[in-house]
Amino acid sequence: MRRPPLAARVGHHWLGPVSFLLLFGLCTAWALVTPFFGAPDEPAHVIKAAAVAHGEFLGRYTGHAAAKVTVTIPATVAKAATTHVCFAFHATVSAGCLADFTSASGTRSVTTYVGRDPPIYYLLVGLPTLVMHTPGVIYLMRLVSAAICAAFLTAAVTATRGAGLLLAGVAVAATPIALFLAGVVNPSGLEICAAICVWVAGLRLVTESTDGPPSRGLVIRFVLAAAVLVQTRGLSPLWLALIGLTLFWLAGWQRTVALLRTRSIRIGLAVVAVCGVFAVVWILVAKSLTIAPVGTPVPADASRWEILRKSLHRTFVDTKGLFALFGWNDTPAPRLTYLLWGIALGAIVVLALLARWLSRYTVAIVTLAVLSVVVPTLLTASQAHKDGIVGQGRYVLPLAVGIPIIAGYAAGRGWPGGRWRQLVLPVGAVALTAAQGAAFTEALRRYRTGLGHSLFSAHPPWSPPIPELLLLGGYGVLTLALYLGWAWIASQRDSPP
Fold first, then answer.
1. Of the candidates 226, 228, 238, which has an alpha carbon nearest to the alpha carbon of residue 200?
2. What is the pLDDT of residues 37-66, one digit of tens each?
């Protein structure tokens, strides 16, 4: 019997461990390049994580309805997290204006506006506050978040074995903002990474051959990722429901019935259902969807069409947040990042449409693209009078990442092999490396000197904990190694479905 190609044999054994190390390294780089509380809402999330880890899951109501609650946490964390983030929303101001943090003894009562969010992410990330009582605990919390997110991304990557272009879809789905959020204290990072794993494992389960029981590994990946995803944020149950409907459409009735006859699938779905019920009950009872009115106000006499128009405009403005947006949503990436990532996304979608024209895959891709615009627009419009016009592109990423993932899988089934892969995929790897590098460099400049100043100023107001050149070089090497490795494996011929 002919042996598989060397790339396939080596990749089968090392794809998981190597991918985890490289992904964890990239997320760690974002944790180091981002100053304390340099990510959206990080102070509130740090407070919430410390409170949950110390057994305070809900807190006490205060402020605007259920938007703010008071919790009691270690004084060191409270002191740091309540410091004024002087550079937030001011991209030209460096992180050097932030006060130095010092340790404090005892506990302190503080408020957070995410205190009623589901607890699973915060429980895990807050564990370091039980054993460490210096300001550096925030870095440790970030590393925990980075490890968990890297693990889910790795689970998605290993689930692509035998479907090379599906791996290319994962590479496009893991945008710079996904890695950025994975490296800070923010549940959006886990929500996005878990959703990528759900999409990949679910797609393989519902579209592979019906001969024999489904892969136990795929079932475990899907169930674990779905169970975590549904409990991550207030809108997570909605995203999981839409993912489930899409997978049902791709499976068809016959394949769905065959899967439901499998004991492992029934047990897995029961676990996900229990977690989903818990999440929905928590969200409703704890009022997790209540937010402070921080959006752009709308006139009291504004018509529904005017509100809908403004909400739609906000959704399109927020599309940058699907790819790369740093700081407190105040720092876009360079145009090169959006251009190269847009080309990569467009190429894989076009390849899928050419390969599987008028198929279920085409319908799913188009439907997801429409829903990624319609759902956030309607959600924003429905709360406009109460909360103003508010929204962020990253909120819809758990749904939108399904577009490149489905496209990659469809393209691989339509074009299972060919020498063109060995030529095109390495070029794509270099392009994504350049896009990631440009985004990382711009984020470093924003924090180090503020936009409008040279990155390599001799005496910057702020510097990361390790030398800048080492950080930039390390990020570039890790990114290039990751994408070239994935391109090498994805260039092999796909296994028959």
1. 226
2. 999 999 999 999 999 999 998 888 765 555
Q: What is the mean pLDDT of residues 154-175?
A: 93
Residues 6+ apart with CB under 8 A from 356: 362, 410, 411, 413, 414
End-to-end Cα separation, the chain, in angstroms: 20
Alpha-helix residue ranges (DSSP H) falling in 359-467: 360-382, 384-387, 397-400, 402-414, 420-448
Cα distances (angstroms) measured from residue 335 to each of 62, 311, 436, 439, 445: 42, 25, 12, 9, 15
Q: Which residue matches tokens 């925030």?
A: 138
Q: Which residue, among 339, 358, 335, has the nearest Cα to 347 in the 3D structure?
A: 339
> Which residues are paired to 325 by β-bridges?
332
Indicate the length of the chain as a whole number. Answer: 497
Residue 47: which of 98, 112, 142, 95 has the closest Cα?
Answer: 112
H-type helices in 174-235, by residue range?
176-182, 187-207, 216-229
Q: pLDDT of 432-471, one tens digit each?
A: 999 999 999 999 999 999 998 887 777 888 999 999 999 9
Helix (H) / strand (E) element for 61: namely: strand 60-62
CA distance 362 to 189: 28
408, 365 contact by CB (below 8 A)? no
Contacts of residue 293, defined as CB under 8 A and 6 or more positions apart, other chains included, come to 64, 386, 387, 388
Q: To which H or E segment does residue 71 belong? A: strand 68-74
**How are strands ordered across the β-sheet holding 68-74?**
60-62, 68-74, 107-112
